[in-house]
Amino acid sequence: MPQILVCFKWVLDEQDIKIRPEDLSLDTSRAKGKISDFDRNALEAAAQLVEAQGGRVDALTFGGPAVKNALKDVLSRGADQVLWIADPLAERADARVTAQVLAAAIRKHGPYDLILCGEGSSDAFNQQLPVRLAALLGLPCVSFAQALTVAGDRLRATRKLGDCVEEVETALPAVASVLSEMNKPRIPTLKQVLGAAKKPNQEVKLAELGLTPGQLEPRAVRVGAKGFVMNRKNILFKEPDAAANVARLAASLAAEGMC
């Protein structure tokens, strides 16, 4: 029976983020947190695998102090235990640092047969974590999976590659990232929410992971983020002849370099 670990990220809910019109800066003062959308698919994939053939699901996250708000939600979605690392360093960590921290925690608390990640986080969406984790742990990586099965010590997956799919198989243990189209994350029932309060969670101290200052120093630093506002030109074509309107539209688009 597979022992599965799901890595997840606690992010700001983009629906709550406002754009300040004066400078396009982001107002996150009223933004609530949530489990990254794509990580919910990874949690659901793990829960379905265990419900079908037994096993266990642990969840692991690295975030700021607010990450503790994620614990009950994660546990209500099928995880048996959640391991969490809360440290201010996470606020400026790049994908390299995050992978170093999670890999160290996995070495300390593993082993696991299968490590699942979402295809990317809802905020940065750099899609680097699964491959970096696999490289650090010396494991095979199956990315962009739209279907997964575990049979004995083998992982079989269907990968989506642009306009085609690829069937792959690898030995466990392995790392895999799942696409959002793989499943529809469950909405926890009242029983699952109440049951989550009885499941264990464990804080993992960053200082206990034996990482060097160099491993915790980000090499890519986000210097700022701004919103995007589309200013519509509101051009109307009111020729009585429809063909003339189409011709004017085509000419206008060509003048803008769009066709």
Automatic annotation (TrEMBL):
Q: Which domain of life is it from?
A: Bacteria
- One matching Pfam family: ETF
* UniProt keyword terms in alphabetical order: Electron transport, Transport
Question: Where does the Electron transfer flavoprotein alpha/beta-subunit N-terminal domain start and stop, copy by copy?
Answer: 23-213
InterPro entries, per the entry: ETF_a/b_N, ETF_b, ETF_beta_N, Rossmann-like_a/b/a_fold
SMART domains named among the record's database cross-references: ETF
Molecular function GO labels? electron transfer activity
Q: By its UniProt entry, which Gene3D superfamilies does this protein fall under? A: HUPs
- Kindly indicate whether the keyword Transport belongs to this entry: yes
Signal sequence region? none
Q: What is this protein called?
A: Electron transfer flavoprotein FixB
Annotated source species:
Mesoterricola sediminis
